[in-house]
C-alpha cells in the first residue's frame, strides 16, 4: 500500500471511531434502517443534504431526531405546510420601538441540522428560501445576508403517495440533495423489535457521541481520501451513460426513455459519497464497490424520463440498475 494512503487509513480509523458510537447510540431507539442512518452520517461527513422518501410510520423523523441527539449539534424541525411563509423559515425584520431601528429575528434555519418535514407541502417561495440556505449556506433577511454555522445539513422527508396539497420540488432543488433515500418497510424480525420496544414504559435518552468540531475535522479527512484515476473514470462512465445511452449498445433501448441525464453535480456527489463510504469502512482510499453502493441514491432523483418511459413503466431505479450492470468496474 502507498505510504500516504496507509497514513490516511490510520487517520481515518482514529478520527472516525466516533461514527460507530453514533450508530450504536441511534440503534437504541431506531430499529433497522441501516441505510438511512448511514446516508445521514455521509451527509454530515460531506456537507451533502439528504431527501428521505417513504410512507408514513417508517421512522424517518425519528431517525433524523435520533442522529441529532447523538451528535452535539443544534437541531430544528420545521413542519412544512401550504400556508408556510419564507419568513417562518429564515426569520424576519422586527421593529424595536425603544431604539427606533429594525433588527433581524433569526428563524429556525439557523441551526446545524434542519429537519424539513414533508418538504413537498410548502409553496414555491418557501422552496426558494430553503434553496438559498442549501446552496449558498446563507440567509438573506431584509438587505443583509447572514452565514449559516457549519456543519449545516438539511434533512427533508417526503410522502410519495399523498398528492393532495403537495407541490413538486423544482429540479434545481432536487439536484441540491446529495442523496434521495427511498425508505422501505422493516422486515418481520425488525418489526417485532419495534413492537417489543413500544410495549415498554421506559423512554430512552440518547447521549451525544460527537461534537460539531469532530464532524468538521472528520469532514476534512474524508475530503482527502484517495481516489484512483481509474475509479474517477468509472464515475464519469456511469454519469455519461445516463446522458448518452445511445453511445453504448447495451443501453440503446434507453435512448428514447431518458430525457435528461445526471448533472455534473452528480459526478461530484458520487466522488464525495464514495469517499464517505470508504471513511465509514475505515479506509483511506475508494474502491469501485464504494461507488456502486451509493450510485442509486445519488442518481435516482437526477435523471428525468420521457413520456415513453412512463408508458412502458420504466422508472429511474431501472435505469440506474441497467447502467451499473453494463459499465465495467475497474
CATH topology of the largest domain, what is it called?
A: Rossmann fold
Strand content: 15-25%
Kindly provide the name of the CATH class of the largest domain: Alpha Beta
| Radius of gyration over all CA atoms, rounded | 21 Å
Could you characterize what this model shows?
The protein is an alpha/beta fold and 330 residues long. The protein folds into two domains: 3-187 and 209-218, P-loop containing nucleotide triphosphate hydrolases (Rossmann fold, 3-Layer(aba) Sandwich); 226-326, Magnesium chelatase subunit I, C-Terminal domain (Helicase, Ruva Protein, domain 3, Orthogonal Bundle), CATH 1.10.8. It has helices at residues 3-15, 17-26, 34-46, 60-70, 86-90, 124-136, 171-176, 188-198, 212-223, 229-243, 264-280, 288-299, 307-311, 316-326; strands spanning 49-54, 75-79, 91-96, 101-106, 113-117, 138-141, 144-147, 153-158, 177-183, 258-260, 304-305. Strands 2-5-8-1-9 form a five-stranded parallel β-sheet. Strand 3 (91-96) and strand 4 form a beta hairpin. It is globular and about 70 Å long. The two termini are 18 Å apart. 39% of the residues are buried. The mean pLDDT is 87.
Structural features:
11 strands; five-stranded parallel β-sheet; two-stranded antiparallel ribbon; alpha/beta; Rossmann fold; 16% strand
Strand-helix topology:
Elements: H1 3-15, H2 17-26, H3 34-46, E1 49-54, H4 60-70, E2 75-79, H5 86-90, E3 91-96, E4 101-106, E5 113-117, H6 124-136, E6 138-141, E7 144-147, E8 153-158, H7 171-176, E9 177-183, H8 188-198, H9 212-223, H10 229-243, E10 258-260, H11 264-280, H12 288-299, E11 304-305, H13 307-311, H14 316-326
Parallel strand pairs: 1-8, 1-9, 2-5, 5-8
Antiparallel strand pairs: 3-4, 6-7, 10-11
